[in-house]
Amino acid sequence: MTAPTAPAAPALTAERADLLETLAAHRHFLRFTVQGLTTEQASRRTTASELTLAGIVKHVASTEASWADFVVRGTAALQQSPEEWGEQWGLQPGETLESVLAHYDEVAARTDELVRTVDLDAAHPLPEAPWFAPGAVRSARRVFLHVVAETAQHAGHADILRESLDGQKTMG
């Protein structure tokens, strides 16, 4: 008797491959900005902004995790208190740059698996919020595009912070 086989994963279409490649590229840029830093350095404010490198990585990981949950669970996944939102912008007691990066790796692996497997047309309504149009709906495809944009935007912010810290640039 042979063991049952797992169902085959959907074929990796060009669209899915493009999403995965683009996510990987922008995650790389973000991770590059904290390369070689200590937790103390990554937690330092280097501009007039309250942003820190560690805080940006933590926020991007948290945001990606929330949107991945939204793809699976719907609207409830995007509900968070103002305190929860605020905590994702800085390291909390016991957190380090290494722990935040490890969490980001876990989040990225889960998102990548969803990109490979979910119905990209599956959609859920967005929660009521001033930044969403009333009755707005997001497909998994659009969520993944949003994660790409969010990661790219914050990688740019991180590049400025790192250059202000020690002159290192992601490019150039």
Automatic annotation (TrEMBL):
Q: Which organism is it from?
A: Geodermatophilus normandii
- SUPFAM superfamilies linked to this entry: DinB/YfiT-like putative metalloenzymes
Q: What protein does this entry describe?
A: DinB family protein
